[in-house]
Specification:
The structure is a homooctamer. By secondary structure, chain A is of the alpha/beta class. Chain A has eleven helices and nine strands. Chain A starts with a helix and ends with a helix.
Amino acid sequence: MSEDSVRAILQRLSSGDIDVEEALQELRYAPFADLGDAKLDVQREMRTGVPEAVYAPGKTTGDIVGLVEAAEARPLFVTRASREIYEAVAGVADAVYHERARLVVIGAVRQRDDGMVAVVSAGTSDVPVAEEAAVVAASLGHRVERVYDVGVAGIHRLLAYRDVLADAQVVIVTAGMDGVLPAVVASLFPAPVVGLPSSVGYGTGRDGYAALLTMLNSCSPGVAVVNIDNGYGAAVFAHKMLLRLNQE
Amino acid sequence: MSEDSVRAILQRLSSGDIDVEEALQELRYAPFADLGDAKLDVQREMRTGVPEAVYAPGKTTGDIVGLVEAAEARPLFVTRASREIYEAVAGVADAVYHERARLVVIGAVRQRDDGMVAVVSAGTSDVPVAEEAAVVAASLGHRVERVYDVGVAGIHRLLAYRDVLADAQVVIVTAGMDGVLPAVVASLFPAPVVGLPSSVGYGTGRDGYAALLTMLNSCSPGVAVVNIDNGYGAAVFAHKMLLRLNQE
Amino acid sequence: MSEDSVRAILQRLSSGDIDVEEALQELRYAPFADLGDAKLDVQREMRTGVPEAVYAPGKTTGDIVGLVEAAEARPLFVTRASREIYEAVAGVADAVYHERARLVVIGAVRQRDDGMVAVVSAGTSDVPVAEEAAVVAASLGHRVERVYDVGVAGIHRLLAYRDVLADAQVVIVTAGMDGVLPAVVASLFPAPVVGLPSSVGYGTGRDGYAALLTMLNSCSPGVAVVNIDNGYGAAVFAHKMLLRLNQE
Amino acid sequence: MSEDSVRAILQRLSSGDIDVEEALQELRYAPFADLGDAKLDVQREMRTGVPEAVYAPGKTTGDIVGLVEAAEARPLFVTRASREIYEAVAGVADAVYHERARLVVIGAVRQRDDGMVAVVSAGTSDVPVAEEAAVVAASLGHRVERVYDVGVAGIHRLLAYRDVLADAQVVIVTAGMDGVLPAVVASLFPAPVVGLPSSVGYGTGRDGYAALLTMLNSCSPGVAVVNIDNGYGAAVFAHKMLLRLNQE
Amino acid sequence: MSEDSVRAILQRLSSGDIDVEEALQELRYAPFADLGDAKLDVQREMRTGVPEAVYAPGKTTGDIVGLVEAAEARPLFVTRASREIYEAVAGVADAVYHERARLVVIGAVRQRDDGMVAVVSAGTSDVPVAEEAAVVAASLGHRVERVYDVGVAGIHRLLAYRDVLADAQVVIVTAGMDGVLPAVVASLFPAPVVGLPSSVGYGTGRDGYAALLTMLNSCSPGVAVVNIDNGYGAAVFAHKMLLRLNQE
Amino acid sequence: MSEDSVRAILQRLSSGDIDVEEALQELRYAPFADLGDAKLDVQREMRTGVPEAVYAPGKTTGDIVGLVEAAEARPLFVTRASREIYEAVAGVADAVYHERARLVVIGAVRQRDDGMVAVVSAGTSDVPVAEEAAVVAASLGHRVERVYDVGVAGIHRLLAYRDVLADAQVVIVTAGMDGVLPAVVASLFPAPVVGLPSSVGYGTGRDGYAALLTMLNSCSPGVAVVNIDNGYGAAVFAHKMLLRLNQE
Amino acid sequence: MSEDSVRAILQRLSSGDIDVEEALQELRYAPFADLGDAKLDVQREMRTGVPEAVYAPGKTTGDIVGLVEAAEARPLFVTRASREIYEAVAGVADAVYHERARLVVIGAVRQRDDGMVAVVSAGTSDVPVAEEAAVVAASLGHRVERVYDVGVAGIHRLLAYRDVLADAQVVIVTAGMDGVLPAVVASLFPAPVVGLPSSVGYGTGRDGYAALLTMLNSCSPGVAVVNIDNGYGAAVFAHKMLLRLNQE
Amino acid sequence: MSEDSVRAILQRLSSGDIDVEEALQELRYAPFADLGDAKLDVQREMRTGVPEAVYAPGKTTGDIVGLVEAAEARPLFVTRASREIYEAVAGVADAVYHERARLVVIGAVRQRDDGMVAVVSAGTSDVPVAEEAAVVAASLGHRVERVYDVGVAGIHRLLAYRDVLADAQVVIVTAGMDGVLPAVVASLFPAPVVGLPSSVGYGTGRDGYAALLTMLNSCSPGVAVVNIDNGYGAAVFAHKMLLRLNQE
C-alpha cells in the first residue's frame, strides 16, 4: 500500500467519511503491501542500476519470452541463453546477444563515472565466464577493463597489466583448474578480489571444485568468492560495491 | 632493495666511486629485492592499515612469540589463539585479548572516517565468528556496528535494525545451519554482503558446509563468500573495500 | 492365501473331507500368502487412493506396457515418461499425459473434500518438478493450488498469495539453487512444509544438493524433505497426511 | 505495531487531536512493526503450542540463561543441553531435564486431544534421538506412543506393535546404520512417516549419512525426512500436522 | 502361531467345539505370529550358530546388560565393548573378553568340522579389526587361521602362508590405507575373498574410505566387501557360507 | 627356498646322488619358482570355469577383437559391449550376445551340479544388472534361478519365491534407489547375500551410491557387497564360493 | 630488463649523459621486466626441452590456432585436441596428430641421451592416457619404453617386462579402477613411480577417484601422483627429473 | 629363466664344467628365483639406504618394540610416534627422537654425495610435516636444505632462497590451506616438485583436501603429489630419484 493510499484512507477518516473501525479495517490488509513498499524504499537507494536476470536453463522459450515481457527493470539479462532464445527474445525487446558469454542484454544503462572493474582470466578457456562478468558489469554502466589469459604459469604476463590492476576499484578474477590466480592478484594489488571459479578442468579439478576450494582457502586475505561459473553474480557484487562508493 | 639504496649505488657510480661493472654487480642482486620493493610500492597505496596475521593452530607458543617479535606491521593479529598464547604474547608486545573471538590484537589503528561495516549474526552461537570479524575490522580503524541474533526464523528482529543495515558500506553476515541470512540481507539492503559461514550446526549442516553452499547459491545477487569461520578474512575483505572507497 | 481359501479348507475339515493333519498340511503353506492378506488388510485402511507408480527410466517400453497392464491400482502413474512411452501406454489404458511433469496418469480419482495442498515453486525452472507433485496430488483427489515463481529474491510475490498459503493443510515447496523458500514459508504460515529440492542450479548447486542441504538444515522448524526432484514422493506424503485427516 | 496502537492513532485523528499528516507520520514507522504483527497474526492460528527452542552448542551458559529469561513462548526448549546448563536454567525458570534426550523443557502445555504420534526407534542406540522427538511432541500436548528397538533385523518385533502403528496420525521413525526402518513402516501402515536419521553407525554409516540417503531414496512412498539427529525438528513437523488436523 | 496352536484350533473345529467361522476368526489373528513362526522355520535351517549381537556404542551399560539378559541366542556378542561394559556383562552371563577386538563373547559354540576361515591382515595396525572377525568366526564354531601383517609392501610374506590360504574355504582380508591386499589374495588363491576395509590410515586414506574403494573396484574378481571395520559382519558372512556348505 | 636348500640340491647333483632331471624336479617346486608354478597350480584347481573378461569401454573394436583372439580361457566374456562390438567379435569367435546385459559370451561351460545361485532384482529397471550376473553365473555352469521385480515396496512378492530363496547356496540381490532388498533377504533366508547395487535412481540416489551405502550398513548380517552395476563381479564371487563347495 | 640494458643505462650515467635521477627513473620501471628476465634465467637452465602446452577444451578452434601462432616454444603441445583442431593447427604449423592420445605435437626435439622413461598401463582401456604421457615424453627427447596391459590381475605379465622396468630412470604407471599397479611396480623395482590415475572404471571407480586414492595411499613408498588422466603432467614431471639428472 | 636355462646350468654342474658355488651364482639370477632374488638384486642397487618404516598409530607399544627388534633394515623409522613409544624403542635399539616430526630414527646412514633435497614449507604450522620429510631424507644420507615459512602471501621470502632452490635436484614443498606454493616453486625453478599437502587449515581447507586438490590441478607442470601429511613418502620418493641419479 503506497503512502498515497494510506493518506487517502486517513483523509476519509479525518473528514468523517469512514469511522475508526472502518479505517482500521482498510489498513489491516495493508501490512503486506506495506512490506512491498518498504522493500521498494530500500531498493530505491540503489535504483537506476538494480539488475534483474532470467536464468534460462529449465525454462521453455515461451517462459522466457513471457518473463522478459513482464519485467520492467532495465537492464534485464537472460543468462545461459542459446542463440535460439536470443532470437525469440529479440522479437519482443531490444536485445543484444553476447555469444561467448551466452548472455542476452536488454537495455544496458548509460556509462557511469564511478570507478573501474578489472575482469581477469587465468586462461583462454575461462573467457566465457569472464565475459559474462564483464558484459554484465559494463551493461550496468561501469567502466570495465579486461585482462585475459594471464595465469600464474607465466606470472610476468599478469605483471604487464600492473597499471590496470593497481587502478581498479574491484578485481574479478576467474580461474579454473588450480584456481591460484585470485590469491596472487590479492597479494600484489590493493583492490578487493572477487574470486570467480570456472568449471574448466578435468580429473579432480573437473567442474571447478578445486578452483573454488583454493579460492576459499586463499592465504592472501582480501578474496571473497562467488559460485562456480557465476559471472553474473560476480558482476552484481562489484556493482553493489561501486554503488556504495558513489553514494558516499 | 629500496629506492634509496638504488639511488646510493647510482650516486657512487656517478661520482666515480665505483665503475659500471661494480654498479651492475651490486644491482644484479637487487631484482628480487626489487620485487619486494615493487610489491611494497603497490602495497604503499593501502598502507597504515595493511593487516598481518599469525594463524595459531599447529604452531608452538614459542613459534608464535617469535613471529610476533619479528613482525613490524601494526595492527598484528594472532587468530584462533588460546588465552595461554595471549599471555605469552603479552610478554613481548602490547596485546589485547578478545576471548570470544579467540583473537589477540597488537596495536589497533586509530579510527578512520571511511564508512561503516555492519557485522550481522544469525544466532548467538555464531557470535565467536562474528566477533572475529568485528574486532578485526574495528582494529583496522573502521566503524563497526554489531547486529547479532537476527536470524530469519524471526525476520522482524532483522528489520528492527533497518537503519544500521541501510547505512552500511558493507555487511558481513555470519550464519551456520541453513545459512539463509546473507541472501535475505542482500535482498533487502543495498550494501554488498560478505557471506561468512559458521561451523555451527549438526547432522548434514555440521562444520558449516550447508551454510557455505546456501551462500554460494544465493538467488539474491550481491553475496560473495569467504571460508567457513574465516571472520578474519571477511574483515580484511571489507577493509580493502573501504580503503578503495577512501582512495577515490 | 485368501480368506475364502482358508474358509474352504476349514469347511472341508469341518465336513470331514479331510482330517486335521491334512488341513494343517494345506495351511502350512499359507503363512506367506497370509502375510499378503494381512498386508492388504492394513492397506485397506487407506484404500481408494493408494497410489502405485511405474518409474520409467531403465525400463523398456515393453516393460512399462506390461506393468501397466498387470497393475490393478487406480490411479496408476508412470513417472519420468517420454511422450513415446505415453503413446504406447495409451494403447492399453485410458491415460493422460502431462508433458511438463513427464507424467502419465491412468484413472485419476474423483475429487475428495479433504483439504487443500498448496504447491509452491521458487522459480519457473522448478515448474516441471512442481507439476509432478501437483498433478499427482490432484489425481489422488485433492484440491491443489499452484503458487509458482515466488522465490525469496522478491518475497512480496510470495506474500501476495498469503490467503492460499494460510489456508493449506500442507504446503509442498520446490526450490533449486539456494533452496531457501521452504524455510521462509515455514516461518510465515502454519501448515507443515514438504521441502522438495529441484535439480535446478549450476556450480556447487548443480543437481540440487545445495537446495537439499538448506532444507534439511532449516532454522525454521516444520520442514521435512523428500529426495531431489521427487515430486511424486512429495505428493504421496501429502496424500497420506490428508487421508489421516479425513479418517479422524 | 499492535492493532490497538493503530486504533489509538486513528482515534486521535478522528477526534482532531492530530491531523492527517501527523497520523501518516506515526503510521509511516509502523510497517516493520506491522510486519511483526502480521506475522503474529499468521502465527496466532497455531498459538498455544507454537514451539520455540534454544540450541545450546556454541552458546555460553550465560547466553542461554539470558535467552530463556527473554523468551515468552511456552513451552520453551533448550536442546542438546548438558546437565550443567539445565541447572543454570532451573535457577531462572521452572524447568524439567530429560537426560537421555539432553533436553530442557520449560512449561509443557496441557494434553490436547488431537491424535497420536508414534515414535519408533530401530535400536536402543537410537533412543536419545527418539526421546528428543517424543518429549518435544509430548510437551507440545500430543499423545505419544513409544515403540523402541524394533529394527528390521527382527521384523516381527515391529509387527507386535501393529495396533499402535496403525492408529497413529503420524509416525516418527528414527534409525541409524542402514536406515531401512522408515521405508518398512511406510510400506505397512497408513500414516505418513517422518524419517529421522540418527548418527548411530560406523565406517560408511558414521554420522548418519547412509541412513539419511536410504530414507530420501525410499522406494515406499510416504516418507519425508528431517536432518540427522534432529528429533526436535521431527516433533515440530508432527505438531504442525496435528494442529492443521485439529483446525479442520 | 506355532504349528501346535494351529493344530489345536483345527482339532476343536474337527471335533465340533467351534464352527468354521470361529476357527477362521482365531486363525485370522495368526498371520503375524505366523510370520514369526515362518521366520523361525526358515532360520531353523541354519540354527545352532545363528549369531546375535549387541552393538555397544550409544547404549548405556544398563541397556547392554538388559539386552544380554533378554537374549537367548548363543553365542551372543557385544561388539565395540569397553572393559567396563564387559565387567558389567560378566555379572549376569558367562562372558569372555577379547580386549584387542573390543569384543565380549557369551557362549561360544563347539568346534564344527566344516572347513576353515583364513583371516588375513595387511598390517599390525589392522589387527583389532582382524581379531573381531577371527574371534567371531571361531566362536561360531569354525576353524580359523590367522595370517597377520602380510601386506603387499613385502609380498613374499604373504606367499609364505601359501598352504593356509590355498586351503581356506573363505578368506577374510583386512587392510587399511591403500587396501590392495584383498585383490592380491583373490588373484593368487581360489577361495572367495571377503574384503574388510579397516579405518587405519591418514590424509585421504583416513577412516578407511580409500581402502573400501580399492576393494570395491578390485580388478581381480572374487572379492566382496563389508563395511569399514565391520569384522563382525565379515565373520557372519563367512559363517553363512560355511553353513550352506555343510548343508549340502 | 633358502640359498642353503638350493645349495644342498646342487651338491647332491654334483656328487651324483641325483641326476639333472631330479635336481630340476626338486628345484621346480622351489618357493620362488613356486610363485609362478604355484600360481598356475592354484589356478588349476579351479580350472574349467575360471572366468576371464574383457571390459569393453575405452577400448576400440579392434582392441577387443584382438584380445578375444588372444585369450584362451573359456568361457570368455566381453562386458558392457554394444551390439556392434558383438558383431565384430562374432567374426572371430563363436559368441552369443545377451542384449539386456550388454554381454558377449564365448564358450559357456557345461552345466555343473554344484548348487544354485538365485539372482534377485528389486525392480524391472535393475534387470540389466541382474542379467549380467545371471548370464555370467549360468555361463560358468551353475544353475541359476531368476527372481525379478520383488522389491520391498511389496514384500509379499518376495515371499512368493520363498522356496527358491531358501534353496539357494548364494543369493545375488540387486537393487537401486534405497537398496533395501539385500538386508531383507538376509534377514529371511539362510544363504549368504551378495549385494549388488545398481545405478538406478535419481537425486541423492543417482548412480547407486545410496544403494551401496545401505547395503554396506545393513543391520542384518550376512551381506557383502560388490561395486555398483558389477553384475560380472557378483557372479564370479558366487562362482568361487560354489567351486569351494564342490571341492570339499 | 636484460643485463645489457641495465649496463647501458649505467654507462650513460657514468658518462654523464643522464643524471642519477634519470637513471633511477629508467631503472624504476625495470623490476617487472627484471622479474621476467630473472625467470627466464632460471628457466634457461632447463632450456631446449621446456614444454609448453595449449589445453584445448573450452577454447574455440580460432583461439587455439592463435595461441599456436603466438607460441615460440618447441615442442608445443595441444592436449585433448580433436582431429578437427589438428587440421586447423596443421594449417599454420608443422604438426603431428596422435589420435589415441588426442594430442597435437609441433616440433618434437631431437633424441637426448639421458635415460629412459617406462610408461606402463594396467589395461588396454588406459592406453589413451598412457599414450599422452609416452608421446609427450618422447617428443621432449627421451627414450620411452611402453609396457601396456600388464595389470595385477595377471602379475606374471608385468614380470615379463622385468628388464625394461629395472632399467628405467622413472616409471609412469597408469591404471583405472582399483589403481593398484603403481604400488606393485614400486614394490618390485628401484625407479620412482609417477602414478597416473585414469578415469577408466564405473560405479565407485568412475572418473578415476578410486584409482587416485589407492595411489595416494600406497603402502609401498616411492609413488607420487598426478591428476587423473593427466598424461601430459606425468611426462613433464619425468622430463624435469631427467633434466636434473643430465645436469649433474 | 626358462626351464631349459636351468637345465643347462645343472648339466654344466653335473658335467663338472662349473662347481656348486658357480651354479648357485648363476641360479641366483634365475627368473622365478629371479622374482625373489631379482627383487633382492634390484634392491641391492639401492642398498644402504633402503628405507623401512613402522607406522605407529593403531599399534601397541609392544607391537612396535617387537617390529623394531625383528627388522634388520637400517635406517629404520617409526613414524607418528609419541615420546612414550620412543622411550620404549630406545630400550632395544639405538634410536633418536625428532619431536616435532614425531619420528624415531634408528641407524641413519652415512652422508652420500648425490645431490641435494630442498624441503620447503609455506608456513610455520606446516613444519612438523616438513620435518618428517627432511629428517627422513637426511637419515637416508642425502644433503637436505630447509626453506621454511616462505608461503606465497609474501613471495619475496621465497625468492630470497633462490640459490638453494635453483640448486636442488628435487624440491619437496609442503603447504596447507590453499596449497599454492608447489605450483609457484615449479613455475620458478627447474627441479621437479614433490607436493606434500599438510592438514593445516580450517573450514573447507580442513584436513588438507583443498591443498591436495590445488596441487593435483597445478597449472604449472612438474608437480607430483603424495598423500596429505605424508612427509615420509615424499622423502622416500626423493630418495629413489637420487638413487637413480647416482646409478647412472
